[in-house]
Amino acid sequence: MTARQHFGDRGQTLPIYIWLTGILLFAAFAFFAFAQAASARNGAQSAADAAALAAAQDARDELMDRLGGAIGQDDNWLDWLNGKLDPEGTGAAAAAQQLAAENDSSLQGVQMVTKNGYPGYQADIQTNYTVGDSIIPGTEGMRAKAHAIAVIQPRCDFDLDADPEKPVELVCDGEIVDIDPEHFDPDDLPDASVLFSVHLAE
């Protein structure tokens, strides 16, 4: 009598065991699918960050070239120290496209923006790779998208009443930069990172 009771218990637990195993397998596959999606999103965001930074850095280089050409020639050259960008500049888009491609993504668009009071660029990208096969239908053709904004932040302070035709002292985060418009050589300008920082906007 007792033996038959134990046999019956084992027969009843087998379907429960199979059912629980199936649930655990489904949960494992679902977790893997979400991990795939998260990985794709992270990759997309990294590509967008790199593209936006590349665009802003290229714009900063152009800004430095225009600043160097304006000192001694343009009485408004001090305005360039506020990070005035050229809306006609074309190098930013090419730089963003290159960095997106290096991160296995495609640039969907790049545009000049202002964020937190600073000029910069927004880059929108889409990954060239997909999320991949999973138990969630359609993921094999899904591509991750992301966008990022990088800004150019001026680092120098100067006397707002300074005469642009006379020597001007710039204080760039504690570093002193002296510029004499009458005896100026573009090679006298410090590295771009001294006058302007480029960083992702929060």
Structure characteristics:
3-stranded antiparallel sheet; alpha+beta; 202 residues; 4-stranded antiparallel sheet; single chain; 7 strands
Q: What does this protein structure show overall?
A:
The chain has one domain (2-200). 42% of the residues lie in helices and 26% in strands. It has 3 helices and 7 strands, in the order ααββββββαβ. A hairpin with a 2-residue loop joins β5 (168-172) and β6 (175-179). α1 (2-70) runs antiparallel to α2 (91-102). The longest helix is centred in the first third of the chain and has 69 residues, at 2-70. The mean pLDDT is 81.
Secondary-structure topology with pairs:
Layout: H1 2-70, H2 91-102, E1 105-115, E2 118-130, E3 143-154, E4 156-157, E5 168-172, E6 175-179, H3 192-195, E7 196-200
Antiparallel strand pairs: 1-2, 2-3, 3-7, 4-5, 5-6
The gist of it:
With 202 residues, the chain is α+β, with helices and mostly antiparallel strands.
